[in-house]
Design brief:
The protein is of the alpha+beta class. It is built from 14 helices and 16 strands. The protein has a six-stranded mixed beta sheet, sandwiched between helices. Helix 5 crosses helix 12.
Length: 492
């Protein structure tokens, strides 16, 4: 089975049952703690096992499910946001494999949607991605965690090679990536949510799946291979703004959503619930330093949130526009997840398909990879402001200018190949996109919840203030994060 011939599977093998258990809240909060430097809740592994213990448990899983794989040399490989990765190799094998163990931050759904998404992409594009051999979307096993067994892809992360790459090679790799992305974003969908295998439809759909939309010739325009007769289902969304920290337990719709407004309204509702349920007491469940600072300034934070909430009906219409077409988008095409041949600098793989979902096209920022984007710059966190660390606005501005010059040619070639995702000629469309992107940015986990002063600044810069008084940004060591003259009202 594992000699010179590769494994030939029609689909990944699910080891676990399709029925999902619901862990109690007290079981999941132990996977979150206050980040030492920035004070927000971060994911961590409470188990103090050493690598030998992990390897022993992995081997027991493999002995039970895949005896041939249990003969592998198992070594620690890497650690990610939600995962531990171990390599599986053997002198007689022509391939290497990765065994990934995951923290249960969104039990069942995250693993199920990720594996289905990878299989969907593998079947419908030429994107080079790992092939999944088997997975468990349940923690009812020897590990006590969900896990995935997949092929190890060749290559090195872009971040390790970028400084040594000639300018021409930098442009070429993003031109190559663009060819695959163009195929990915050409797949269109009727709703916003996540992909699953059809056999778990009853677990992930609130209603009966709709039939694919077709034109007069019977050719599918959207929802390819989805719904009755298809291999896949479009169901509940898996995204960090829907499951991060306490959000996983809040009631409310997880989709799939028919309109952008429905999607934005639910994000807003979850953010509001999170802000109303702070954990400011050290030692208590879900405590983080950021919540303590929000609680100290909660009157102003709540007032600012109410003003943001009042903006949504003004800036996000009830009906979808051309910019709201649903696309499957890998929102972390970063220097960590793009793998290249270290000699030729050719693209070898795109990895880490966790929480990849179907979102409105405008939220992809023209399908721009994170590495070519300026969307990753973050203002100084709330906790650091409270500690007296001044805002890093000047550094951000200078670094943007530097990177724009460095990335410019690659970005230009990438967008030339990918092309437009929707018609942008209308001034009305352009204004809607600007408004919607602004709202989307404020609702990201790392924005309002961690940096409300930045939302106040954005509102002021865009004219969302009253009586000529704009929001001030805290620029001095003080416990007051949003100053007294922060926006009083939002003009109708």
């Amino acid at each position: 089975m594992m000699g010179s011939t590769s494994i030939d599977l029609d689909s990944p093998i699910r080891i676990s049952q399709t029925q999902r258990p619901r862990p109690p809240a007290e079981d999941l909060h132990r996977y979150w703690r206050s980040h030492e430097d920035e004070g927000y809740l971060e994911r961590y592994w409470p188990d103090d096992h050493d690598h030998d213990a992990w390897i022993g448990n992995i081997r027991r899983v493999l002995v039970h499910e895949f005896p041939t794989f249990a003969k592998a040399d198992i070594q620690y490989f890497a650690k990610g946001t939600f995962n531990r990765l171990y390599s599986l190799t053997h002198a007689s094998w022509d391939k290497s494999y990765i065994f990934r163990v995951s923290i249960p931050v969104e039990p069942f759904f995250k693993t199920e949607s990720e594996i289905a998404t990878m299989e969907y992409v593998r079947r419908h594009t030429t994107m080079p991605i790992p092939r999944v051999i088997a997975f468990s979307s349940s923690d009812a096993n020897e590990l006590g965690y969900e896990w995935v067994l997949m092929e190890m892809m060749p290559g090195e992360p872009l971040r390790k090679l970028w400084s040594a790459m000639p300018d021409a090679a930098r442009v070429e790799v993003f031109a190559e990536l663009a060819v695959h992305v163009k195929q990915l974003v050409a797949l269109r969908f009727s709703k916003f949510g996540s992909l699953y295998f059809a056999d778990v439809s009853d677990q992930v759909l609130p209603h009966t799946a709709s039939l694919p939309v077709q034109n007069g010739n019977g050719a599918e325009l959207v929802d390819k291979d989805i719904g009755p007769g298809g291999r896949f289902a479009l169901g509940r969304i898996v995204a960090q703004d829907f499951f991060f920290d306490k959000r996983v337990y809040y009631p409310g719709s997880r989709g799939p959503f028919q309109t952008t407004r429905e999607l934005v309204d639910m994000r807003l509702e979850l953010l509001e619930k999170r802000l109303r349920e702070l954990s400011p007491v050290e030692g208590a469940a879900w405590y983080c330093e950021n919540d303590r600072e929000l609680d100290r300034n909660k009157d102003r934070v709540y007032e600012l949130f109410d003003q943001l909430k009042a903006l949504v009906p003004r800036l996000v219409p009830q009906d979808n526009g051309p910019e709201d077409v649903g696309v499957l988008w890998h929102d972390d095409l970063s220097e960590h997840n793009i793998l290249l041949d270290p000699v030729t600098f050719k693209l070898t793989a795109v990895v880490d398909w966790e929480s990849v979902s179907i979102i409105p096209a405008y939220e992809t920022y023209d399908a721009r990879p994170a590495w070519l984007s300026d969307r990753d710059w973050r203002p100084t966190p709330l906790v650091q402001l409270a500690r007296g660390i001044p805002p890093n606005d000047e550094f951000i501005t200078a670094d943007k200018v530097r990177r724009m010059g460095e990335m410019g040619p690659a970005r230009e070639e990438y967008h030339r190949i990918v092309g437009l995702l929707y018609d942008t000629t209308s001034p009305e469309t352009q204004q809607r996109v600007k408004n919607k992107q602004g709202i989307a940015k404020q609702l990201e986990i790392a924005t309002f919840q961690h940096r409300p002063w930045w939302t106040a600044s954005w509102m002021a810069e865009n004219g969302f203030f009253c009586n000529g008084t704009a929001a001030d940004v805290v620029d001095e060591p003080t416990d007051t994060v949003v100053q007294d003259n922060t926006i009083n009202n939002v003009q109708a």
